Amino acid sequence: MISRIYCGQCDFPFKGLRLVLGAALLGLLLTPSPAEAQATSAPGGIAIYPKNGQSPEQQSADRYECHTWAKSQTGYDPTVIGGGVAPNQSVSVLQQYRRAMSACLDAKGYSTSVAAPPTNAAPPPPPTPASPPPASRVAVAAVPADLGPQLKYHPFHFQIDGGYSIPTGESHRDLDGSAIGGLGLAWFPSSALPIGIRADGSYSHFDIKNSVLAQSGNSYGWGHENIYGGDADLQLNLAHRSARSQMYLLGGVGWYREQTELRGVSWVNGTVCNWFFCFPGTYPAVTSRENSTSAWMHSWNAGLGWETAISDYASFFVEARYERIKPYDSHVSFVPVTVGFRF
Fold first, then answer.
1. CATH number of the CATH domain containing 210
2. d(CA 207, CA 260)
3. Which of 86, 117, 148 delimits the end of a domain?
4. How do the pLDDT tens digits run along the chain, 343 residues long?
5. How far, in Å, CA of 101 to CA of 46, rounded?
6. Is there a single domain that holds both residue 69 and residue 210?
7. Distance between CA atoms of 37 and 196, rounded to whole angstroms?
């Protein structure tokens, strides 16, 4: 019979090995996954995980766009107390907001998780027939994956525009309305700020009214005035509920020049020719001409505009502004109404 002697000190190394393995297993269970380590929070108690390596700036812009869209669909705003809805609807509408927010983020390349509602929350009472929730707030679960073109943040914008200039004040007595064309460049330093800096250039061609030509004392029969220059403006994008369009204000200072040309037209005697033969006759001819160009003059302008997305990288806009050019002795003022595209 073989006897076995127990040795507590001999078993010590095996106990230490079991402790080390247990601690390693516990560390693996408690270590967050790479997706969880990159998680960021969104309004409404939603955690989002970028699946395509989106930058922090892009994540911020996408969260804002999806929050704006979900709020417009459900009427719920988690940034205000009670969500901005009736107390008896706050829980149900919050869930609708979360579904809309998650659907929008999924379409932009994120995975989401939603915090579970508190277990001690009392179920909301059924809505009364007098004030049922709008249908658009109930059907948010069926959100399409494609939300259509949206105004996305881009630091730089190039624009081309054209339209019609309407003279005002003293200019209305002297000039007829004319076409206008222009180019522009804008810079928005940050997606978190709705303010950008614009540089706009334009060229307008005005005809001088016949009544003004008749009062000049000379036999001028035709005249026009070209106004060209540029503006340095600030653009302030206003708060908007839609991710597709927005209103904005603009204003600033500029520098312009006026180029005037007058032509005297008189009836003269001479030889008139057509396709077949020539004969003596009378015809109108330019008998005098006067050109002048002003120095660069200061100006100021203010206006508003509306912009809507036609793709993720281009938009269509309409804007109108009041432009006033003020030399020392008089001033020129007009309202250019333009349409154009930004890229």
1. 2.40.160.20
2. 10
3. 117
4. 444 444 444 444 445 545 444 544 444 444 444 444 466 777 778 888 888 888 888 888 888 888 888 888 888 888 888 888 888 888 888 888 888 888 888 888 888 887 655 444 444 555 555 555 454 444 444 444 456 788 888 999 999 999 999 999 888 888 998 899 999 999 999 988 899 999 999 999 998 887 777 776 556 677 889 999 999 999 999 987 778 899 999 999 999 999 988 887 777 788 888 888 888 888 777 777 788 899 999 999 999 999 999 998 999 999 999 999 986 556 889 999 999 999 9
5. 8
6. no
7. 34
CA proximity to 229, closest of 300, 159, 166, 140: 300
Does residue 176 lie within any of the structural domains? yes
Residues 239, 245, 249, 250, Cα dihedral to 10° = 140
Residue partners of 163: CB distance under 8 A and separation at least 6: 179, 180, 336, 337, 338, 339
Q: Are residues 189 and 256 in the same domain?
A: yes
Q: Round to whole Å and give the CA distance between 139 and 36.
A: 30
Count CA within 13 A, CB hemisphere, residue 94: 23
**72-to-29, 68, 75, 77, 97 alpha-carbon distances in Å:** 41, 6, 6, 9, 10
Q: Are 209 and 224 in contact (CB under 8 A)?
A: no
Whether residue 334 contacts residue 323, with contact meaning beta carbons closer than 8 Å, is answered with: yes
Q: Are residues 279 and 175 in the same domain?
A: yes
Residue with tokens 């030399």: 327
Question: Do both 107 and 177 map to the same domain?
Answer: no
Q: How many domains does the chain have?
A: 2
